[in-house]
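SAMPLE LOG
Freezer: B-3
Tube label: C17
Construct: single chain, 291 aa
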Amino acid sequence: MKQFYIIFLVFSLLVTAVMLWPGLLVNPGNLSEVHQKLDGGCLSCHTPLLGTPSSHCISCHSSEEIGLKDTSGRELVEPDSVAALLHRELQASECIACHTEHALPGKGPLLAAMDHDVPATELQKNCTVCHEPDRPEDALHARVQTSCNECHGTKRWEPADFDHESWLRADLSRSGSCARCHEPDRPDDTMHREAKNSCSDCHSTKAWEPAEFDHDQWFRFDRSHPADCSTCHDNPADYKRYTCYGCHEHSKRGVAAEHREEGIREFSNCVECHRSSNEDEAERAWRKIRR
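STRUCTURE (predicted):
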């Protein structure tokens, strides 16, 4: 029985110590600069077994005054109208849904995350109330009049799910329409500078790469010809230039001897006759040129 009383006494002392001095038992980290005056006063914000009720926050930070006045009631030199509007229109008042402590140093609102389900419904539909300074000033955003959340999510700004078909269906078929928004992204190599077709002939609106270039209109890959671009296009500064000496079957000496044997003296532009590995097709093309 004596042992039971000893255990009960020790347990009671521990519980009392935890209730009176919880900060000595668990210290999750230093408070931010703006809350330094509360250091050690855990019960100013926390309630044992109940966590951090918002009523403790509101006792200092009135939702009607956030962004307009400090905790002593004095008007701010630089009021934050967005913060004021946001906190006045909250659908819920769980402060820890967005704010944190013991984690971020310095001053400021100590934002851990922004739960966009918390603001009032009308604010959720009007992103520019808070994000107008972040609105891009490019040609695309200047033309699109839809709501931000048609493309952007509330978890992260990018990647955006932009449906080109819905907004630009009439423009996509016209050459040059893509350049209205994507001109700064246009590659500056020879092939793209001299291309006369529409961007959409090669590129998709879902992803810029990989591009679907119809190589058959220039040279068909068949038999032993590899489909590795760098085998023939070995000059990164000018991909329109090509070489047929990138593989072991073609050497300059061998190609020269073979063509001269046929009486062909000009053979620098291979695809003028050779549009595939079919020799008969190349011979027909050469005879047509000789006429």
